[in-house]
Amino acid sequence: MEEVRVFPLSCLVQNYAWGKVGLDSEVAKLVLGGDPQAVIQDDRPYAELWMGAHPKGDALIKDNRISQRTLGQWIADYPACLGSKVKDTFQGQLPFLFKVLSVNTALSIQAHPNRELAAKLHAQFPEHYPDNNHKPEMAIALTEFEGLCGFRPVEEIISFLKNVPEFHALVGNEAADELQSSRDNPARASLALKKCFSRMMNCEKKVFVDQLNMLVKRVLEEEAAGKDTSRNNGELLLRLHSQYPGDIGCFSIYFLNRIVLQPGQAMFLGANEPHAYLSGDCVECMACSDNTVRAGLTPKYIDVNTLCEMLNYSPAPASAKKFPSVQDPSDPCVHLYDPPVPDFTVMRIQVPPSVKQYTMSPLDCASILLVIQGEASALSDIMLHRGSVLFISANESVTLQVTSSSGMMMFRACCLL
C-alpha cells in the first residue's frame, strides 16, 4: 500500500480555567465545525486547541487507511514526511506546535526561556518545566485580541510612578530615582528597570495587597465621581483585580505595554519577553514546548526569581511589538508571518469568492492546515469546512475545489528553513 501523504486530524482541547466558556469560545466553535457530533458543554471553558505532535496533546489521525493512531506515531514511523532539512535539523521531530486560543480571563504574567535556560530548568525542576526546548511564539488575532507584551518606554513607566503612588510604594524611592536618572542611557535604564521590577515582584504579600486595595478603592471613587482614570490605567486594573484579587500581577500593567490586535495582526514573543494574554481569540504557533516561567495572575507554580533574572529589560513602545505579515510574491492569496526563529512560519491563506479552484504550493517541510471559514473538497475524498485540520507531508501540493460562495480563510503552519 502506498504511503498516505495528506490526512485529516482530530485535535486535543485544553479546558484551562481562563478559556472562554461553551460556544462563546472560538475553540469550541472550531471543534464543533470539525466534528458536528462533538458535545460542547455550556458551562465548560474551551481554552486551547492543540494541533501538533506534542506528547501532552498529540493529534489523532482521522483516516482509516492509517494504522498509526496519533500524528506523533506517524512521524516516528515515516520521518521523511517532515522533509529532509527539517528531519535532520530537528532530529525527526515536528518542530512547532500550532494552537487556537480563546481567552476569557487573563493568562499569567510569564516569559519563556531560551534553549540554554530551558535545558537547565528542565534538569532541575522537570515537574514545573516539562520540556528542554525553548518556546518562542507568535499570536495572530482571529477576533480583537488584547495582551501585555514587553516593557513600556521608560518615560511611560516614570509617568505611572508619579501618578500612581501605590505603585511607587512597591518599587521604592531608590529604584524609582535610579530609573528617573538613567532615562538617557539605555544600558543603565535596563539595569534600573530590572531593579524596579524585581523590587515590586519580591514585595511582601501584606504590603502589596494593602497597596492594591488602596489603589482599587481610589480608582473606584474616581470612576464614581466621573473622573478620567487613564492615568492609573484604571479600567484594566479593575478588570484584572476582579479576575485575580490581591495578585501582584495587577501592578504589571504599569511596566508592560498593553497591545490590542485587530484580526490578522500579530505579535511575536521571543525568549525572555514578558507577556500576558488578556482577552480575545487567536491562532498561535510556537516551538514544540510547554515551558512557561510565571510570576503573577495565576494559581499555578510561580517562580519570581527565575523570571526576574531571565527577562529582556529593553524598553520599547507597544507599536514595536506588533509583527508584520508580508504578501507572498508567488501567491497573492498568501500572507506570511515569518519570525526570526527557525522553528515555524505561519501563512494566512485568503481565497477570494471568485476563485473556485485553489492549489496550495508544495513546501519542502511538513505543514498543518486549519480552516477558519469556507468549504472545499481536496484529493477527491477529503471534505474541508470550518474547523477542519489537515496534515500535509513535505513536497505535497493540495488542490482545493472551493464550494462556498464566500471564499475561504485558512492558516498553515510550517517550518521554512
Automatic annotation (TrEMBL):
Protein name listed in UniProt: Mannose-6-phosphate isomerase
Biological processes, Gene Ontology terms: GDP-mannose biosynthetic process; mannose to fructose-6-phosphate catabolic process
Pfam families reported in the protein's UniProt record: PMI_typeI_C (PF01238), PMI_typeI_cat (PF20511), PMI_typeI_hel (PF20512)
Cofactor info, note text: Binds 1 zinc ion per subunit.
Domain Phosphomannose isomerase type I C-terminal as annotated: residue spans: 336-376
TM helices/strands, residue ranges: none
Lineage of the organism: Eukaryota, Metazoa, Chordata, Craniata, Vertebrata
Database matches in PANTHER family: MANNOSE-6-PHOSPHATE ISOMERASE
Gene name as annotated: mpi
Its EC number(s): 5.3.1.8
Species name: Ictalurus punctatus (Channel catfish)
GO MF term list: mannose-6-phosphate isomerase activity; zinc ion binding
Ranges of residues in domain Phosphomannose isomerase type I helical insertion: 170-256
